[in-house]
Amino acid sequence: MRQNNTPPPDVVAAQINDERLTFHLEDGRTVSVPLAFYPTLMLASLEERAEFEVCHSSVHWPKLDCEISSDCLLRGAKEARKYAEKAWRRKTQPAEF
Question: pTM above the 0.85 mark?
Fold first, then answer.
């Protein structure tokens, strides 16, 4: 299979709710996936989800140490298991002071 050297489209806006993660792309497309694809976001609080930064073709949630690219959404890629497990541990273990 031949590699495509076209860079992924930039994200111009992102939306997240309890069910879906949606990116609006510079080329006019809108791509949306179930939030269950990204357990880190699914397990996060509303406040943690709301605090994100759009940077070119990616969206970053600093407090969650989570970054998702437009390419991932376009491919329907799910979060890697090791990151999902980390999110689950963070959610189920009490915070240390």
Answer: no
